[in-house]
Amino acid sequence: MRHVLTLAAVGLASVTALAGAAAWQLSRVGIHQGYAPEQPIAFSHKLHAGDSKIPCLYCHSAARKSRHAGIPAANVCMNCHAILNKETAEIQKLKVLVQQQRPIEWIKVHNLPDFVYFNHSQHVLGGVACQECHGSVETMPRIRQAAPLTMGWCLDCHRGRGRPSAAARRVASPGMRPTAPPAGLDCGKCHY
Question: Which of 50, 67, 87, 171 is the most buried (most CB within 10 A)?
């Protein structure tokens, strides 16, 4: 009888462990934290935003006024690369695409569910530093999704936000002051 009880306990523990593992896996559905696809041009944010200190909003200028940060046109890249002497295989790919007037087919890294509304301009004007959501982009040779971008993660930030920090305010371009009120918790602001 004791042997049967031990087997039953082991079986119950195994089923519980499997159910727990399955529940954890299901809780991660739609979470792409760590996602870092290979891009058509090996663009290094470490080189551009880190070493060269190009501000995020120079390339992603739409983030100031639009829901989307936008991907810069290849001509924005050529503002610098047309006058720089450095040549690499990746710069050659860029120049060929510009010459052929073809867009770079970047692979989107940060994806939110269709039922979520997110506005970059509200966050940028509210003083949220790009790194708060995108991680230390200036250290990434290949861009990756650093944060889980889950509802709980966003709500934790909204609950903890008061006045934007001085560092966050510096992200906005000179003369731009954060104008957005502190983050709210109204469901209708983020969900359709």
Answer: 171
